[in-house]
Design brief:
There is one protein chain. The chain is mainly alpha-helical. The chain has a single domain (about 10-440), classed as Orthogonal Bundle (Hydantoin permease), CATH 1.10.4160.10. The protein has 19 helices and two strands. The protein has helices at about 10-20, 20-35, 40-65, 70-75, 80-85, 95-120, 125-135, 140-160, 160-190, 195-200, 210-225, 230-235, 245-270, 280-295, 295-335, 335-355, 360-365, 375-400, 405-440, and strands at about 370, 370-375. It has a two-stranded antiparallel ribbon with strand order 1-2. A hairpin with a 2-residue loop joins strand 1 and strand 2. The N and C termini lie far apart (about 45 Å). The structure holds phenylalanine (PHE) and sodium ion. Phenylalanine (PHE) binds near residues 21, 22, 23, 317 and 320. It is a multi-pass membrane protein.
Length: about 450
Amino acid sequence: MITSRFSKLGFILAAVGSAVGLGNIWKFPYVTGEYGGGAFVLVYLITALFIGVFVLISELVIGKLGRSDAVTMFETLATKHKKLWKYAGFIIIVPLIILAYYSVVIGWIFHYIAISIQGLPQTVEQSKDIFIGLLTTDIQTQLLYHTVVFVLVTAIILQGIKDGIEKINKILMPLLGIILAILLVYSINVDSFSKAFQFMFNPDFTKLSSEAVVVAIGQAFYTLSLGMGIIITYAASLPKDSNVVKSSILISIIDTMVAIVAGLIIFTLLFDKGAESTKGAGLVFISLPSVFYEFGSIGSFLALLFFIAIAFAGITSAISMLEPTVEYFENRFNFSRIKAAMICSIFFYVLGIAALLSNIESYSSVLMIGEKGLFDWLDFVCSTILVPIGGILVVVFIGHYMDKEAVENELIPLMGTALTKFWFFMVRFVIPFALIIVILNETGIFKF
Ligand code: PHE
Ligand code: NA
């Protein structure tokens, strides 16, 4: 049983803190670039609304009715096959695995905060050397920052829901908002802002592929932290009278706005210096630093703000990845919070070190599995296979295996009978089917 509760605002900020992360500021802009700008943004907005909000509602309802750790909730809320459904709760292992390499990436961001202060790379070539050098040769720096993230995240988790998670989000989320606002205002005053705006909102449908649709669905899940038991776990600490529908819409809107604002800022700066929009994962770490340099003395300041913003976004997401397994050990095994936190943290810390080493030239042969290193494998398996599977489990569970009346009692007063029916139809049939397509497509079993 969960006794500690968020405040209403605290819950929204914590959920937004989980949702807003590297997925918004790093991944969204580069997939938008890759899949042709406006058309992708439009598809993404539709999927965020229909799939994102609907699954968010599902996870909030499960948490609110279940009030426990994720594993226990799947067990107690199932109307049949309780013993089997318990295992669905083990999706909480996924965010802990993600955290292993996510922590390493947050570490890179810390390093770039230092670079913004010490001096930015002056050309793209130099920028590339710095980033590739960090990844493939510099164990020390990566290990140092990975350890810093490990200590930070563990320390916050140890403080619990109210004094740890809620408090840090109440500080970092408003600061993140302010920083993004400053960067946006700056960008609006740069000439190429209108070009960036065009790029993101003027859809060129000839560029739209079915693959873009599949990618958009995957991104909607990842960006809203769905299918991993995270929102379910946070929602178990919802205040009693929270409106799960309004909360879901709000969380989704804020997450989407951050992604779009980040995109506008990044594309404005890139276009202004004539840099490429489609640079894959290197967009933030290779293209941007040298672009910031070209902005002169204000550039270092902008870079500093930018990397601090991503660091804040990353830390609050990282905390949310750790909490579900910690609560699981506390609840099911009666472990003290410190013992539970240490077990989970050391797990992600050690796995993160292995992931980091797999990018290092001299170690990569040991940690290669087929074409990819461990780092890339973890990301691939988690975000393209396990997260959609977790999503399927969540919607099938609430759609077919929970007490229908209890779910209706929660939703009908908030959105009426017709919408509730539509929501049921979506979670029962449409969303599971969409997610199966995502998995088939992303694993290459069947390409659309
Ligand atoms: N939603 C986060 C983002 O957009 C990522 C995340 C993944 C958060 C898994 C929690 C768990 O970056
Ligand atoms: Na996100």
